[in-house]
Amino acid sequence: MVHAVVGHVVSVATDTMHVEAAPAQGVRSGRPRLAALDVLRGGTVALMILVENQGNGRHAFPGVAHARWDGLGMADVVFPLFLFVVGASMAFAVHDCTWPRIVRRAATLYVLGVVVTELRWLGVLQRIALCYLLAAVVVRFLSRRHQLLLGAGVLWGWWLFLTAHPTTPDGYGDPWLFNPSGLASTPAATVNVLAGYWAIGLLREHGAVVVARLGAGCVAVGLLWAMVHPLNKRLWTGSFVLLTVGLSTLALVALLHADARPRLTRAFEAFGRNAVALYVASELVSNVLHDIGARAWLYRQVFVPWAGLHGGSLAYALAVVGAWWLVAYGLWRRRWFLSV
Questions:
Q1: SS3 143
Q2: pTM metric for this prediction
Q3: Do 250 and 270 share a domain, yes or no?
Q4: DSSP 320-338
């Protein structure tokens, strides 16, 4: 029954996606693009697939697993990095979009999220949809100064709330409100989206050096704030927001300099041009492999014998990323770009 419902929802969601075929290699059409942003988006999606496709979560390779509670690992940076990229992309499109299109895009992302989580109302794409919609409202109705004040107020208010209502891993509270994709921390996560939008505006006005300094400043302030307000992805704390915003900003600036070396970044650009489609497809295939037992069999029989429990988990995940890169590269070579 669930698979029948999911299949129907997939058909509805995919009807709202369209294929953009570029006229020729190197020719840009439509709204302007920033190649470094495509590369950053692609690298982020590749990391998302890597993190979510460990052969066995209990034996995840060190550094690829999420922190259990306070702290920060590589896996914890991936989701906020993607939110930052969503905001940066908004800077090229949101003011030209009509409200029906903005709402349709958010609704499509949300429905796709429900599909890949097998009819759960909260998840990665669902949070992206909500944060995108909230950020679009903020940037369309508020000046940058008021946007910054609102962002600071959200992080400050969330800190005060968490201080007044301390939580632990075992006393997490209502999962609708308190989880990495819950409703309570969605305003704080929206600040990651807004930061991406601000970063593009500042790049246009002041250049990469100023933006890099601001990114480094966010990292420093986030680490200092973490002394009294710990880094915590599951609660999406203010220190976690500032640190991940800073790291995302520095990554974007670094990739701007890599634009002059396209061979170094082309592999990730292929991922970035079809980011949502590839992520959704990877999640759907992963669900099927898990349901039929193929994922566990491949992990135990193919990867563990030569790489061990933890190394096998990583090797399986890398194989999955490699397989999806082949799909991404094929789409990129044919200039087929699926967009929401």
A1: coil
A2: 0.86
A3: no
A4: HHHHHHHHHHHHHHTTEEE
